[in-house]
Design brief:
This is SURF1-like protein. Keywords: Cell membrane, Membrane, Transmembrane, Transmembrane helix. This protein has 270 residues and is of the alpha/beta class. It has 2 domains: 94 residues; 124 residues, no CATH class. Helix content is 41%, strand content 20%. It has 4 helices and 8 strands; from the N terminus they run H-E-E-E-E-E-E-H-E-H-E-H. The protein has a 5-stranded mixed beta barrel with strand order 2-4-5-8-6. A hairpin with a 5-residue loop joins strand 3 and strand 4. The two termini are 37 Å apart.
């Protein structure tokens, strides 16, 4: 009854099913790994945001690369803003997806070291973004700021190309080593996204809390792939049994037809 499984059509279908099952299982495992990676990153963000503020010198130093565990940690710093060395970071968007600049202002600490501070987003003065925008001044004199510690920006992590030949006082990426050369100073590694004090004018718009990755979606995809993998052999069995029933029914009808024909032939002969 199941000799049809040896036909070319069914051999091909069986081979495809045998390939699909391990492929779908592997895809489910990959999605589960992505779920675990994203969940771990989300937990790091949660832990960093919940940690008590610490002086920035405890986590950052010249030449130090901000680690994953240090990223988003709330830090404090006391010093003064050096607006003469202020630059803007091109092609940045705000919460409404408007294109403008991030304002990067060196912050000179009491010991003379420099902390790079991303004060937030401002709109561009024109569509070309070639002119240096008007930037509200930060507090004068000695002040204490708070913010989230961030690693140096790279093209690999951000997807932003580091273009050359930019207008004066404009950069594409915040790079502490490059800024140390420009400023001829000891610059702490990474930078701080300022969260306080808030500017009186509302500009620059300080950056909001970092968003979390949708790890639950990867979990759902993993379960989905494994359900598909389980459905393939079930579907193969259902199709095979249905075809077997159909072939048996066809064979029965052929037998009945042959017997009827033989009976009519015998009756006619009599």
């Amino acid at each position: 009854m199941y000799r049809f499984l040896l036909s070319r059509q069914w051999v091909t279908l069986t081979l495809v099913a045998l390939l699909l099952v391990p492929t779908m299982i592997a895809l489910g495992i990959w999605q589960m790994n992505r779920y675990e990676e994203r969940s771990a990153r989300n937990q790091l963000v949660t832990d960093a945001l919940a940690a008590d503020p610490v002086p920035v010198e405890r986590l950052a130093a010249p030449g130090h690369a901000v680690t994953r565990a240090e990223r988003y940690r709330t830090v404090t710093a006391t010093g003064r803003f050096d607006t003469d060395a202020e630059v803007v970071v091109r092609r940045r968007t705000n919460a409404d997806e408007e294109i403008g600049f991030h304002v990067m202002t060196p912050f000179v600490l009491d010991d003379g070291k420099v902390l790079l501070v991303n004060r937030g987003w401002i709109p561009a003065d024109g569509p070309s973004q070639t002119e240096f925008p008007k930037i509200p001044a930060p507090p004068r004199g000695e002040t204490t700021i708070t913010g989230r510690l961030m690693p140096d920006e790279t093209t690999e992590a951000s997807g932003i190309k580091d273009l050359e030949g930019l207008p004066d006082r404009q950069i594409m990426l915040i790079d502490s080593e490059r800024e140390a050369e420009r400023l001829d100073a000891d610059v702490l590694g990474g930078y701080v996204a300022q969260t306080g004090p808030e500017p009186a004018s509302g500009l620059p718009q300080q950056l909001g809390n970092p968003g979390k990755e949708n790890a639950a979606l990867n979990y759902a995809y993993a379960v989905q792939w494994w359900l598909f993998a389980a459905a393939v052999p079930v579907g193969w069995v259902v199709l095979a049994r249905r075809e077997a029933r159909e072939r048996t029914a066809d064979a029965g009808r052929d037998t009945d037809t042959a017997e009827s024909d033989a009976a009519r032939t015998e009756s006619a002969a009599v």
